[in-house]
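Team,

Forwarding the record for the chain on the shared tracking sheet. I've put the sequence and predicted structure together so nobody has to dig through attachments.
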Amino acid sequence: MKNIHKIKENIYITSNEEIKEGDSYIRIDTGLFFKSLKGSNPNIIKKYCKKIILTTDPQLIADGIQAIDDEFLEWFVKNPSCEEVEVNKLCYGALSGYADAGYKIITPKEQQKQHLIDMMKSDEELGLYEENQQGVLLERATFEFSQDGNCISGTDDYEFLTIECESSLGIDRDKGCFYVLKTEKWSIDDENDLKKIFDRINTIVKNNQEKTNKK
């Protein structure tokens, strides 16, 4: 949901926090600012108004609203079409009590960085970095096979089989996978024919992992 509002030369970042008496807030359909709830219509407040938590407006900053930091402003200049940004509320103190420490803007770049850090941390906890110092992981793989058509049908020269190797966390992370078979027709003499195919796939995947771990 949009929480970045550009009005004239200033930027206002809003939140869905409850608006209380004394809070600065904006009516987003008109761009008008207010600091008192006296005489206001509760339905209008709920539907159209948002609490201002960060801004570049010097007047509101003087009134106590937190200023938007230069780091975000530099990023925003390069990404002027952005209409939404994640904002974390900070606090400090012990379990017995805490104090408000303002807000921290999390830019999409920081979100991507944090997502990567979380994935790397998960991989480390699973012990993958001990096996793969490059951090290059096999997520999924697809194998395609073909063979001559069986002699009974006599209509198809070739038969085709696709086997997709999938895993919820990735093949390297799970140290294995499950198989999805896709075919219109694939003839076998017995179960050993399929076993040979799966053994071949497992050998290829294992060899790939061993080569990667040696790099």
